[in-house]
Every structure is written in structure tokens, then in C-alpha cells.
Write a structure and sequence with these properties.
CATH architecture of chain B: Orthogonal Bundle
Mean pLDDT of chain B: 83
Radius of gyration of chain A: 21 Å
Order of helices and strands of chain A: HHHEEHHHHHHHHHHHHHHHHH
Strand content of chain A: under 5%
Low-confidence stretches of chain A: none
Order of helices and strands of chain B: HHHHH
Helix content of chain A: over 70%
Number of helices of chain A: 20
Number of strands of chain A: 2
CATH topology of chain B: Helix Hairpins
Structural class of chain A: mainly alpha
Structural class of chain B: mainly alpha
Number of helices of chain B: 5
Radius of gyration of chain B: 24 Å
Oligomer: heterodimer
Low-confidence stretches of chain B: 131-137
Strand content of chain B: under 5%
Shape of chain A: globular
CATH class of chain B: Mainly Alpha
Distance between the termini of chain A: 43 Å
Chain lengths: 497, 137
């Protein structure tokens, strides 16, 4: 029995939320639909922990879907690289589901809640599938499952603010163009290699150096994924989509959606193609490196001038994605590991910050802007405490998770002879303190305009507390994150570098 | 020269449709026209895949007993069947969003909508200064 379970884990972790989404849509009761969502995300999280243990033993698990042997059939691959984003997605999915129990009924009318939970599970299933699959075309299908579900989720914010509709529309159009570009790339690669399996593809592209169709296909794929990952010039959809989505959805999307795409980016760059190839070296140093540096500063500066807090955090996400792609662009083993570390830590940090801000907007029943934050910190000590810890973590203060990722990133860039990159990273972190301080100052130092009494609700702050605890825990003992990212980077970049 | 250029006319059509579609998505301000562009863009990709699957003199991939039969590749067709489903879902979701936008804003022109949004955005920033909220106990 347990043997069968263990053997089928790679597909079960995807199927669990996917199938449950079909059941949840039929259930009219709010509590019951939440309970089923909670149960399936929890089970998916348990499955991912089991998979982690399996990967420690077997190193790579290959699962042939429907028993069709890999190069021809669809293959699901769980290895030391892909287990990492799976854990991020399932962990955050599970925690945000707890968080959503109070937020959803507040923002969405009763009749559509079960449908929202169904989409919620679809989005999570799509993201997990995106990471697990080893088939380039199957990846596109999961990409679209997750992004169509997230578009619909963002559009649900329209019950509070009609701007959510335009945000969702832009997300849909830009996302669909990105996905189509990716499909063109896959098509061109299929046309010259005759395979869709990523492992098989990586063997066959070696003989095709300087083939023009290969270069074009690679370009299309990378650009398509960069649109989904919101790498700098293609980030236009992100701030609005995150800002006007319902609270719980912003938390889920901010913490997981771009991480899955960033993982795919790393996988195409390093695993399908070879890091030693001139094509990849040029792409990394002439396209991704400059774009990431611009993203770091553009995102931070946009955030400094922003007054609407959810938008502010979304702009800061653009900057943080810049750090991750910067780490990939340096292209050494240490820097790719740093990219994965920051991917994990940023999911924790941004998830917690969005949770704190959206729970403030739950209590004051308004969009949170810099001016109506004043004095709220004293009224809601628990939320404020978590907010401060995670802000410090975002800025990269010692003893928090953010410090670990900045430390490894800077160490990696210095050892790769990029002292100027390290200086730029430090400079943009310093800039990020400006907007974080603006929020903390408003929350704590300004006097409230009115006497405010807020009774904080434990169902809302419990998941916030858990994530904040994780932020501190992974700041003190980062061995899990550092070890597994180093193993992931070793697998991706290889021992040669 | 001419024969080799005309010989790949399928790709020319793909290229043309792709550019028309992408131009409509980027260049048009009307939300409905953007979706039309997106559909054309996706259709061009379908055609690209179908072209890969065709082999000169190939028959449909149904097993027959002749030894020297050349079969066309069926896999791209199957892939495109999936891609068409995804495309239909995208279009449907897009159209329903346009409907909702039209009923909320009374327009589907990007300029008018972003002008309204800008006003709303500044209102939110301004009105939040005079705090008047009922707090949940």
C-alpha cells in the first residue's frame, strides 16, 4: 500500500489539488469548501515532504505518465532541483489557505466562494505541475492552467474594486502572448530535434550548435518564460494584478506564481541548454544581467514613490525578482545556489508582508495607503510585530532569512569577480529601506487620527505568525535552504563550474 | 531562388499572421480588437506546428501493409488539439472580462479606462486622508 503511494507520489502531488478543485466547485457550503481546500493543500504539502525524503535517497525520481516510457511519453521528474520549488508552492499554498478562511467571505459574495476555491486549487495544481513535468509541451499546458486560473482569481477582486478587471485583462493578454511565444520556441526546437522531453532535448541540442532555428527557438522560449516570471521590461502586468486581486489571492500569487516561472527559466537556461555554451553565456551576460540590474533599481524606485501599499509591495517584488535573475545571470554554482536561496526566502518574506497588509485592510475595510496606516501599529501589535520582522528580513538585516540570501548573493558575486555587482546589490538594498521605513514610520510613530480599537482575529494572524517564525528560523539555521539550493545548483550548473 | 522562396510559403503565411496578430495586440487600444489579435497570433502558431507535421508524399498515419509508406507525423496535430483548447479557454475568459469591463466602465477603449482609473486612484489616496471607517470589533 505505502509502496504504491510512494511510487505514485510525483503524480499524486499534482492530482490531489487538481481533482479536489472539481469537487469543491460543486459544494455550496462555504465552510465545507474551505475545509476540503485546506485538506487537499495540506495533503499536497505532506506529499511534497515525502517526496523530499525520497529524493534524498534516490536523487532523481522519474515517473512515466500512463506507463508510456519517457522519451516518447510524458515524464514527470522530481530531482534535487525541482523538489525545492514544490516545497515552496505547497507550503505557501497551505499557509495561505488557512489565512483565506476569514478573508474570502469578507471580499467575495457567498455564492461564488466555492468557485473561487476551485480556481485556487487549480492555480496551485498548475504551479506544482509546471515544476514537476519534464515535458516541454506539458509545461505549456500547466502554464496556461495556472495562469488562466490566476487571471480569474484576480478578476474576483472586482467585487471590491473595478480596477481588478482591467488588471486581470492585462495579465491575461500579456500572459497569453508570453505563453504563445514559449509554444513557438518549443515548436521550433521540436521541428529540428524531434523530441519534447527536456532531458532528451538537452542531449540533442548539443549537436546543433549555431543552428539558426535552435537559436530562434531558444530566444522565443526564454522571452515567453520571462514574461511569466515578470523579469524587468515584461513586468507591466504584475503590480496591478497583485494590487487589485482579493487579499488571499495576492498573498498566494506574490509568494508562488513567479517563483515557478523563475525555476523554469533556470531549468531552460542550465538544464536543457548547456551553461558552457556561448549562446547561454551571451544571453546571461548581455541580456539577463543588465535587465536584472535595471529591475533591481526600477522596482525599488517605483516602490519608493508609491502610496498604495499593495502596489508598493508588488513593485518591490519586481526588484526582488531582479535579484534572483541576477544570481542566475552570474552563472556560477554559488550564484545559482544564491538565486534558489533567495527564491525560497522571498516567498516567505513577500508572503508575510502581503498577509500583514491585507489583514490591516480587512480591519479598516479600505484600501491601505500610506496615509491611512497612521497609528495602526499600536492598535494591532501582533500584525505590526510580524510586519516589522519581515520588513527587516526584506532589507536583509542579520538574524532574518533575507540576510542569508543577501549574504550568499554578495559572496557569490564577489567570488565571480563582480565586485561592482555586489556594490549595486547593497545600494539597492539600502534604497529598499526607504519604502520600508516609510511604512513602519506611518504605522508606529504617527499619531492615530481617531481612537482605534481592533480585536485581532487568531485565524488571520496564525499563518502570519508561522511565516514570520519561519523567517527568523531560516535566518538562524539556514542549513536546510542552503544545502538543498547548493545541491540544486550543483545539479543544474554541474561540477565543471 | 524563387522556387525555394515560394516552396516554403506556409512559413510566409505563418510569419504574416504572427505579425498581424502581434501588431493588433500591441497597437490597438480597443480591448476587443486585442483579443482578435491574440486569436490570430495563436492561430499562426497552430499553422506552424501543422506544417512541421507534414512530410512530402506522406500519408495519414494509419498503419497499412505496404513497406515503403511514408507517414506524416501525427504528434504536432495532437499537440495543436491541446493548444486549440487552451486558446479557446483564453479567448472565452478574455471576452467575459471585456463584457464585465464594459458594464463597469461603460467603455472598452484603453485610453478612457485608464483615465477613469487614474481619477479613482487619486481619489483613493486623497479620501483616505480623512479617515472615516467603521472598525470591526
Amino acid at each position: 500500500m505505502t509502496d504504491i503511494l510512494i511510487k505514485n507520489l510525483p503524480i499524486l502531488v499534482v492530482l490531489c489539488p487538481l481533482m479536489m478543485s472539481l469537487i469543491v466547485v460543486l459544494i455550496p457550503n462555504i465552510f465545507l469548501s474551505w475545509l476540503l481546500t485546506f485538506a487537499s493543500t495540506f495533503v499536497a504539502f505532506i506529499f511534497s515532504i515525502l517526496l523530499y525524503q525520497e529524493v534524498q535517497i534516490h536523487s532523481t525520481i522519474s515517473y512515466a505518465l500512463g506507463n508510456w516510457a519517457p522519451p516518447l511519453g510524458i515524464e514527470y521528474v522530481i530531482d534535487k532541483v525541482s523538489i525545492f520549488p514544490i516545497i515552496i508552492i505547497t507550503l505557501i499554498g497551505f499557509l495561505t489557505t488557512i489565512f483565506s478562511s476569514k478573508m474570502m467571505p469578507d471580499e467575495i459574495n457567498e455564492t461564488s466562494i466555492s468557485k473561487v476555491y476551485s480556481l485556487w486549487l487549480l492555480a496551485i495544481a498548475g504551479l506544482i505541475g509546471l515544476v514537476t513535468t519534464g515535458d516541454a509541451f506539458n509545461l505549456f499546458v500547466f502554464l496556461e492552467i495556472s495562469s488562466l486560473a490566476s487571471v480569474a482569481l484576480v478578476a474576483m477582486g472586482a467585487q471590491k474594486d473595478k480596477q481588478a478587471l482591467v488588471a486581470a485583462y492585462n495579465y491575461l493578454i500579456i500572459g497569453a502572448v508570453g505563453a504563445t511565444l514559449y509554444v513557438i520556441g518549443v515548436g521550433l526546437l521540436y521541428g529540428i530535434t524531434g523530441t519534447l522531453n527536456m532531458a532528451d532535448l538537452s542531449e540533442r541540442v548539443v549537436d546543433l550548435k549555431n543552428n539558426k532555428a535552435l537559436i530562434a527557438g531558444f530566444g522565443f522560449m526564454i522571452v515567453g518564460i520571462m514574461v511569466k516570471a515578470a523579469v524587468f521590461p515584461m513586468h507591466i502586468w504584475l503590480p496591478r494584478a497583485y494590487a487589485y486581486a482579493p487579499s488571499a489571492v495576492s498573498v498566494l500569487l506574490a509568494a508562488t506564481a513567479t517563483k515557478a516561472s523563475l525555476y523554469i527559466l533556470a531549468r531552460i537556461l542550465f538544464s536543457v541548454f548547456d551553461i558552457a555554451d556561448n549562446l547561454i553565456i551571451n544571453t546571461l551576460s548581455y541580456i539577463i544581467l543588465p535587465l536584472s540590474i535595471i529591475a533591481m533599481f526600477a522596482g525599488t524606485i517605483m516602490a519608493v514613490y508609491e502610496k498604495d501599499i499593495k502596489r508598493l509591495l508588488a513593485h518591490s517584488s519586481v526588484a526582488q525578482i531582479g535579484y534572483i535573475t541576477l544570481a542566475f545571470a552570474i552563472g556560477t554554482k554559488a550564484s545559482v545556489a544564491a538565486g534558489f536561496i533567495h527564491m525560497f526566502n522571498h516567498a516567505l518574506i513577500k508572503g508575510a508582508l502581503f498577509m500583514a497588509i491585507t489583514s490591516i485592510s480587512f480591519y479598516i475595510q479600505k484600501r491601505v495607503t500610506l496615509s491611512n496606516l497612521s497609528g495602526l501599529g499600536r492598535a494591532m501589535p501582533i500584525t505590526f510585530f510580524c510586519f516589522v520582522i519581515c520588513s527587516l528580513s526584506l532589507a536583509g538585516l542579520p538574524l532574518t532569512a533575507g540576510f542569508i540570501s543577501k549574504l550568499y548573493l554578495i559572496k557569490a558575486s564577489i567570488s565571480a569577480d563582480g565586485l561592482w555587482i555586489a556594490i549595486l546589490i547593497l545600494f539597492s538594498s539600502a534604497l529598499s529601506v526607504i519604502y520600508l521605513w516609510k511604512m513602519i514610520e506611518a504605522l508606529w510613530l504617527q499619531q492615530p487620527r481617531k481612537e482605534i480599537i481592533i480585536k485581532e482575529n487568531p485565524t488571520i494572524y496564525i499563518s502570519l505568525l508561522i511565516i514570520t517564525f519561519l523567517n527568523i528560523y531560516f535566518g538562524l539555521d539556514a542549513s536546510f535552504v542552503v544545502d538543498s539550493s547548493t545541491e540544486a545548483a550543483e545539479k543544474l550548473v554541474g561540477v565543471s563550474k | 531562388m524563387i522556387s525555394s522562396t515560394i516552396g516554403i510559403w506556409n512559413y510566409w503565411i505563418v510569419f504574416l499572421l504572427m505579425m498581424i496578430g502581434l501588431f493588433l495586440v500591441i497597437g490597438r487600444k480597443n480591448f476587443l480588437k486585442k483579443i482578435v489579435g491574440l486569436t490570430i497570433f495563436q492561430t499562426s502558431v497552430f499553422l506552424l506546428y501543422i506544417t512541421f507535421g507534414k512530410i512530402k508524399g506522406g500519408t495519414p498515419p494509419i498503419l497499412n501493409n505496404a513497406i515503403d509508406t511514408v507517414y506524416s507525423n501525427p504528434l504536432p496535430h495532437v499537440l495543436i488539439l491541446t493548444a486549440i483548447v487552451v486558446g479557446v479557454a483564453t479567448t472565452a475568459l478574455g471576452l467575459s472580462l471585456v463584457l464585465r469591463i464594459n458594464s463597469e466602465y461603460g467603455s472598452i477603449e484603453e485610453d478612457e479606462i485608464s483615465a477613469q482609473d487614474l481619477v479613482d486612484y487619486h481619489d483613493q489616496i486623497e479620501t483616505s486622508k480623512k479617515i472615516d471607517t467603521k472598525f470591526i470589533q
